[in-house]
TrEMBL record:
Residues 1-28 are annotated as: Disordered. Signal peptide: none annotated. InterPro entries: Thioredoxin-like_fold, Thioredoxin-like_sf. Residues 10-26 have a biased composition (Basic residues). The lineage of its organism: Bacteria, Pseudomonadati, Pseudomonadota, Alphaproteobacteria, Sphingomonadales. Keywords: Isomerase. SUPFAM superfamilies: Thioredoxin-like. One of its GO terms (molecular function) is isomerase activity. Residues 74-246 form the Thioredoxin-like fold domain. This is Protein-disulfide isomerase.
Length: 257
């Protein structure tokens, strides 16, 4: 496996194109390989959201239902919803944070609540800070996962620069890489953002089952699906254009008709 070179957290925006802005990376494949390298070594050893309109009463409220998909991703809402939205996301992606602030609350309050739409969030890990944040979020389990994701995205402008400024040494041993991940999470302030003690944060970072789930999702995203950036959205297993709530919303509405 290639060794992950030290890098700063966060990504670069691709050159502008005549389509909605998307957090793109000219070397997405290289970044994915390097993110997977971290996981491989670890596993080798034992804006302001608009207020949505008040929805009508429904027979069953699906907005707090979270299940785990076969690939390891968490699904918010009715797992048999007629419209299934998948988001490939990175927790260090600013456009993903914008969608979490704008699109997720609107979906949860309306079509997810009514059981018409589900949202599956698949991690496409890009770097050490992303991996550390993803492990912190996922160790909450299904009940607390989306709440942690939203907190991490909401505070992204504060913790991501701190992570980028860290001088964390890379090493070849799994123990040293584990220590680097924990140092990144702690130095960025991620445990405090989600209310974790240092001991609990260390347990999250060292969770081998979640490391494996993130490795599988990352390989599927960049290697099998071959996404070119985050966020990337699917509606009923079909990739759609756009990376914002403004462009995604009418496509979901069309799928519901």
């Amino acid at each position: 496996m290639p060794r992950l070179a030290g890098r700063r957290a966060g990504g670069q925006h691709r050159h502008a194109r005549r389509r909605p802005a998307r957090h793109r990376h000219g070397r997405a494949g290289d970044r994915a390989v390097k993110a997977l390298a971290i996981l491989a070594v670890l596993l080798a050893t034992p804006g302001v959201a608009a207020t949505p309109a008040r929805p009508a009463a429904v027979a069953h409220d699906w907005s707090a239902t979270v299940t785990r998909a076969p690939g390891g991703a968490y699904v918010l809402g009715n797992p048999t919803a007629r419209v299934r939205v998948v988001e490939y996301a990175s927790l260090t992606c600013s456009h993903c944070a914008a969608f979490a602030a704008e699109g997720l609350p609107a979906l949860r309050a309306d079509t997810i609540r009514r059981g018409l739409v589900s949202l599956e969030l698949r991690h496409a890990v890009r770097d050490r800070a992303d991996l550390a944040a993803s492990l912190i979020a996922r160790c909450a389990g299904p009940k607390g996962y989306f709440g942690r994701v939203e907190k991490i995205f909401a505070a992204q402008a504060q913790w991501l620069p701190r992570a980028a400024a860290l001088d964390v040494d890379d090493a070849d041993t799994p123990a040293a890489r584990q220590a680097a991940l924990l140092a990144t999470a702690s130095g960025a302030g991620l445990p405090a953002i989600v209310g974790l003690s240092p001991a609990a944060a260390a347990a999250c970072i060292g969770n081998r089952a979640e490391q494996g789930a993130l490795a599988a999702m990352t390989a599927e995203a960049w290697g099998t699906r071959k996404i070119t950036g985050t966020p990337t959205f699917l509606i009923n297993d079909r990739a759609v254009e756009g990376a914002s709530w403004m462009t995604l919303s009418p496509q979901i509405a069309a799928a519901l008709r």
